[in-house]
Design goal:
Strand order of the largest sheet: 1-2-3-4
CATH class: Alpha Beta
Shape: globular
Number of strands: 4
CATH topology: Nuclear Transport Factor 2, Chain: A
Number of domains: 1
Oligomer: single chain
Distance between the termini: 22 Å
Order of helices and strands: HEEEEH
Length: 101
């Protein structure tokens, strides 16, 4: 699930998720994610706080020049990720999780 940006949406299963990420990443070159912090949430989910950087293929827009401090929320079942929610706006993630700033 991508929680924000114009590409927000939800997909189920590996095939749908793979297509969604392929489509999303096709618009960017040099896409990088760096994680600043990991937090284990009370319900066993894992929150990562990080930064997203990339350059738009068509426009040359550099995400690094925008506010791109984001977050991911991983839901685990055993040793497998069964749900991933991607936030490109960290404050949106923290608000959704009731964690404030």
């Amino acid at each position: 699930m991508i929680a924000d940006l114009p590409s927000a949406g939800s997909w189920r299963g590996l095939a749908e998720a793979g297509r969604a990420w392929t489509d999303f990443l096709a618009a960017w070159q040099g896409h990088r994610v760096s994680i600043d912090e990991y937090r284990l949430l009370e319900d066993g989910r894992v929150l990562t706080l990080g930064r997203f950087t990339a350059h738009g293929r068509a426009s040359g827009v550099d995400l690094d020049e925008l506010t791109t401090r984001g977050a991911n929320v991983f839901t685990l079942r055993g040793e497998k990720v069964v749900k991933l929610v991607v936030y490109f706006d960290r404050e949106h993630a923290l608000a959704d999780l009731g964690l404030g700033g």
